[in-house]
Description:
3-stranded mixed beta sheet; 8 strands; mainly beta; 2 domains
Amino acid sequence: MGVFYEQSEVVNRTSKVLHVRFDGQDIELQPNYDAEGKLLVDVRNMIPTITIPYAKSQNVLMGSEAAMDPTDYEVLIGVKAKSGAKQKDDISFCEQSSEPTRVRLEDYLDDPTLKIQVGGRRLKRGEARETDHPHASGHLVDERVR
């Protein structure tokens, strides 16, 4: 990826390949763990240090973002410190959740009766879904406000 002097080692905390896009270029981060959560010691992911904030914001654990604070979320990658005593980022094993958005919608909308549905049939009162329509805004739709 380009010519960047300073490189940092990052840990892909999942068992699947993750991607980082910076300056129009893609970087593949190979998994540092197998499906059982065992560390793969021979895998090293080096990326330019300047890309770390972008890599973190592009690889968020879905459903982990705080409803009232968009800067409070868990990420699927961590920067590996040169010495273990200085380790700041979490580099333990975790997998992506099945939540459809960064924020748990039940927390954000503060309505435990709201049902989230991705695609499918016409919505009933009190349901919401993500839209795949090319001309739609991509925001969640709440039928109760119509």
